[in-house]
Design brief:
396 residues, alpha+beta, Rossmann fold, D-amino Acid Aminotransferase, Chain A, domain 1, Dna Ligase, domain 1, five-stranded antiparallel sheet, 13 helices, 34% helix, globular
Length: 396
């Protein structure tokens, strides 16, 4: 067995929990025949960190209570040499000791809050663990639709007009919110600010529909965004792979939905939910002009660099079919199914994509630890402490 342990982290306290499980199973299936030893890190809906071989099989997730009983609690830690490990926090037998797995790299397969939003990435940074995908900055900004659009505006990247508001603002003064929505002109799109997979996203054609959509969306997030609908709408997506210094773009895709705004069902349930984002109906390569394709690919590269993204990301765009105006919609720093279906068109299968992500993670980590990470002085020595004490008595 390989000594190189790859931890696949997934699940999480998020409405997109099940989507995350599907993406993780695709990663596991693609790497089963690789030279790596695969270690699952499943975060339950209650926030428990669990590991164990039963977590490697999708079939076992039909009975979550039984699966949790078969799994073992775990956490990140360091061994005596200071190397990062995944540590089982309970003994398997009376005479045994908890297992510990030195970590070669982590592949986060989370979707949505508390996983894709930079929080898990920050944990990896704290433990100095190499991990695939974007860092804390790109992950956190990319998860916040409002801040993502503000960043794009600052770099002259076209976005649709919108405004956002919090639940307390809605409770105190809903008339102002409704007035702003009317200024955008109906129809409008209502979105939770920090969710993906089209959960809570609704198109409203009048004020009553808007009120109902807002009340529904507040079940998922306390900060909502209302934006002007693009009509007639065509959605085009493009994936980017690599780092800001060295990257490549995939072919474009045109997702197909039952409505002009793709729903969660359109994206994930067209095959009964077994293939994740890969099951969605789409046209690949997108049936658009070469000029529009090149424009979207160029914007995708620009946005990837602006967000300081890494690994693989999917950039989603809204296109006015009549004018071919292009608007940035969102960046997915851990795209559903890792957008492998886009890279297959470029001759890269899922296994090759995962190996590339691991390689990027390792190289990025080596660059990080190759820099000076501490300053050779001791501020707590006797002389320094005396100086600090002297500051207390100083006068301005």
């Amino acid at each position: 067995m390989s000594s190189k342990n790859i931890v696949i982290a997934f699940g999480g306290v998020s409405p997109e929990h099940e989507v995350s499980v599907l993406s993780a199973m695709q990663v596991i299936a693609s790497l089963k025949e690789s030279s790596f030893n695969l270690i699952p890190l499943y975060i339950s809906k209650s926030g428990r960190w669990l590991t164990g071989t039963p977590l490697l099989e999708l079939e076992n997730y039909k009975d979550l209570d039984k699966l949790r009983e078969q799994a073992t609690d775990c956490t990140f830690s360091h061994n005596k040499m200071g190397k990062p490990i995944l540590l089982e926090t309970e003994k398997k037998s009376f005479f045994g000791s908890p297992e510990e797995y030195p970590i070669y790299a982590v592949i986060p397969a989370f979707h949505g809050s508390e996983g894709e939003d930079g929080s898990f990435q920050g944990t990896c940074e704290t433990y100095n663990i190499p991990y695939a995908g974007s860092g804390v900055f790109a992950s956190s900004i990319g998860m916040d639709k409002v801040k993502a659009k503000e960043l794009c505006r600052a770099h002259n990247i076209p976005v649709v007009d919108e405004f956002d508001f919090f639940e307390k603002e809605w409770e105190r003064d809903r008339d102002t919110v409704l007035h702003y929505a009317q200024q955008l002109e109906y129809p409008v799109i209502i979105k939770p600010t920090r969710l993906g997979s089209s959960i809570g996203v609704t198109k409203a054609t009048d004020e009553q529909a808007l009120i109902e959509a807002i009340e529904t969306a507040f079940r998922y997030d306390n900060n909502l965004m209302i934006e002007k609908a693009v009509s007639p709408l065509m959605e085009i997506n493009c994936s980017v792979l690599g780092t800001p210094e060295e990257l490549q773009t995939s072919v474009c895709e045109r997702p197909l939905g039952q409505e002009d705004t793709l729903s969660f069902e359109d994206k994930y349930q067209s095959d009964g939910g077994q293939k994740g984002m890969a099951s969605a109906d789409r046209v690949i390569p997108a049936d658009i002009s070469d000029e529009l394709t090149e424009k979207i690919q160029s914007l995708s590269e620009q946005i990837f660099k602006v967000f300081r993204a890494s690994g693989v990301a999917r950039l989603d765009f809204l296109i006015n079919e009549e004018t071919e105006e292009v608007f940035f919609n969102e960046i997915n720093t851990i795209p559903g199914s890792f957008s492998f279906y886009l890279w297959e068109e470029s001759g890269m299968n899922m296994k090759e994509l995962m190996l590339k992500l691991i390689d990027v993670a390792q190289k990025r980590h080596q660059k990080k630890i190759g820099r000076i990470r501490s300053y050779d002085t001791n501020l707590l020595d006797e002389k320094a402490i005396k100086g600090i004490k002297g500051l207390k008595g100083s006068k301005n």
